[in-house]
């Protein structure tokens, strides 16, 4: 069973321009009251922001995912930056030697800590 808050967050994150709250409950196939509770949970968690918006003279909200700074620990293995940044090769992560080497380096660094 999926978590409706997770589903809502995925929908919001997949729309960088934002999603109208008055549309979100239709997309999620829940009633507007349940949608309001889900939105409140996501707002309280800081995962989304809500901006007032008027559509056809009716007040609603645009919901956008908040941007979080990247944790440098997740992109560095020692001094080595994850190779995916700036990579323009066709990606096949399961067979990428550059990524495997970097992960190996990361494991060594973590073992040394
Ligand atoms: S996994 Fe390999 S091919 Fe894919 S983006 Fe990262 S470095 Fe590039």
The CATH class of the largest domain: Mainly Alpha
Cα distance spanning the termini: 39 Å
CATH topology name of the largest domain: Arc Repressor Mutant, subunit A
Q: Identify the CATH architecture of the largest domain.
A: Orthogonal Bundle
Largest sheet: 3 strands, antiparallel
Mean pLDDT: 88
| Helix count, DSSP H or I runs of 4 or more residues | 4
Q: Any overview of this molecule?
A:
- It is a single chain.
- The mean pLDDT is 88.
- It is elongated, with a radius of gyration of 20 Å.
- The chain contains 4 helices and 5 strands.
- Strand 2 (48-55) and strand 3 (58-65) form a beta hairpin.
- By secondary structure, it is of the alpha+beta class.
- The longest helix is centred in the C-terminal third of the chain and has 16 residues, at 97-112.
- The chain folds into 2 domains: 4-65, Winged helix-like DNA-binding domain superfamily/Winged helix DNA-binding domain (Arc Repressor Mutant, subunit A); 72-112, no CATH class.
- Helix 1 crosses helix 3 (32-44) and helix 2 packs across helix 3 (32-44).
- The protein has helices at residues 4-13, 21-28, 32-44, 97-112, and strands spanning 19-20, 48-55, 58-65, 76-77, 80-81.
- The chain has a 3-stranded antiparallel beta sheet. A two-stranded antiparallel ribbon has the order 4-5.
- Iron/sulfur cluster binds next to helix 4.
Keywords:
113 residues, alpha+beta, Arc Repressor Mutant, subunit A, 2 domains, three-stranded antiparallel beta sheet, two-stranded antiparallel ribbon, 4 helices, 42% helix, 19% strand, binds iron/sulfur cluster
């Amino acid at each position: 069973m999926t978590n409706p808050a997770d589903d809502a967050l995925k929908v919001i994150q997949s729309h960088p321009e934002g999603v109208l709250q008055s549309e979100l409950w239709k997309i999620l196939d829940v009633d507007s009251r349940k949608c309001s509770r889900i939105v409140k949970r996501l707002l309280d968690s800081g995962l989304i922001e809500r901006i007032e918006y008027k559509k056809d003279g009716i007040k609603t909200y645009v919901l956008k995912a908040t941007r979080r700074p990247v944790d440098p620990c997740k992109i560095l293995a020692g001094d080595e930056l994850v190779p995916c940044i700036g990579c323009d090769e066709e990606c096949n992560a399961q067979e990428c030697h550059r990524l495997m080497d970097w992960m190996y380096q990361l494991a060594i660094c973590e073992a040394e800590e």
